[in-house]
Amino acid sequence: MTSDPGLPGPRPGTAPDGPALVDQEFGSGSLYALRAAVAAHAASAGLSQDQVDDVLAAAHELAANTVRHDAGHGRIRLWADDQFLYCQVSDDGPPASGEDRTPASSPASWQTGHGHGLWLIGQVAAGFTLDHRAAGTTATARFAIASPAQPPDPRPPARSQDAYPH
Amino acid sequence: MFRADAAVGWLASQLASSREQGFAGLRVAVDMSWALRPVAGIEELPRFEEGIAAVLAGTAASVLCQYDQDRFDPVTLASVAGFHTRSVAAATYYADALLRICRQYAPPGIRAAGELDYQAEEPLAFALAEAVRLDGDVVLNLSGLTFSDARCTLVIAEAARAIASSGRAVTLQCVPGVAKGFARLGIAGVPRVRLVTAGDQ
Fold this sequence. Notes:
The structure holds 2 protein chains of 2 kinds.
Chain A: E1 22-27, H1 31-44, H2 49-69, E2 73-80, E3 84-90, H3 116-124, E4 127-133, E5 136-144
Antiparallel strand pairs in A: 1-2, 2-3, 3-5, 4-5
Helix pairs in contact in A: 1-2, 2-3
Chain B: H1 4-20, E1 26-31, H2 45-56, E2 61-66, H3 74-81, E3 92-95, E4 99-104, E5 109-116, H4 121-133, E6 138-148, H5 150-165, E7 170-174, H6 176-184, E8 193-197
Parallel strand pairs in B: 1-2, 5-6, 6-7, 7-8
Antiparallel strand pairs in B: 3-4, 4-5
Helix pairs in contact in B: 1-2, 4-5
C-alpha cells in the first residue's frame, strides 16, 4: 500500500488519529465481545449483511490467530474512509517462529490446518497487509464499501436477500 | 376443548382394561405437541399431568410425555416438570452461555445453536464423531448457529464429507452467514451433501 502525500487525512490503511469505530483489547475470553462489536459497527458503517459477515469472519480469524499463535492478546481497530472499511489487529509480541503468516493463494485444501484462517481472509477481503516487527505484528484487512452513488442494481431482488433489510 | 378430568379418566380406563386382559403393565407414549395448538382449556395442562401422576401411583404403568424443547417455552416446561418422576433430555455435548451442541433424534444428527469457534472444537468433533457413526442419512441442524469460524466450519465440512463418502446423505441447515463458510470450501460440489439455508423463504 502506498501513501499519497497530496491527500489530506490519514494514509489509507493507517489507523486514524481520531476515534475509530471499534478500538478494544481482546484475549481468548473476549472473542465473543469482539465479534459483537465488529458486527454492530460494520453494519452501522453502511455495509450490507453479506459484507458484515465477511468483515466478521476476517476480524475473528485475525484475532484468533493472535490469541492462538502470537502474543495471546491484542488490540482490534475498525475504521472507515470513503472507500474502505479497515480492520486492524495488532499485538506486542514477536510472531511464533516457523509460522507461515502469509495468506495461502491456493484454493482451500481441506486438510489445511494452521493458515486456513488466513486463507479465509484472503478470500473475503479486498486487500490484506501484514507487518512483522520485533515489537509486534500488525495485520490489516480492508473491505470495499459499496458507494451509494452507484446506479441501482437492475436485477430483481434475489430471494436470499429478503432476510436482509438494509 | 381440553378437559383434564376426561383425559385422566381415559387413561384410568385404559389401565383398567389392560389389567382385565391380563397384561402385567401398560406403557403409553404421548406427543405433547397437541398442547401447542390453540386449544381451549390448555391451562388445565398442569392438572392433567398431576392427574396422570395420581392415576399411575402404585401401578405397573408408565406414561412418557414428550415435549419438544424447540417449541415449548421454558415456563410451561418448568410448570409440568414437577409432575414427572423422571425426565430425559437430549444428550448434550456442550452447553454454555454462547453455545449449545446436542444430539438430534429425529431426524438423526446433531443440533448446534449459538456461536461456534475453535475453542469449542473438541466437543464439536466429539458430537460429529457420533453423528458419523449413526445409521442412515444425517441432518446437521445448525440453523440456530449465528457464527462459525474457519476452523469449526472446516471440521463440520470434513465430517459431512466423511458421512457422504460412506454413501449416506448429509443435510446442513444453516443461516446465510454460516452457509457462506461451507460454500467457500466448495461443499456444494460434494455428492450427497446438501446445504439448506434457513432464511431463504
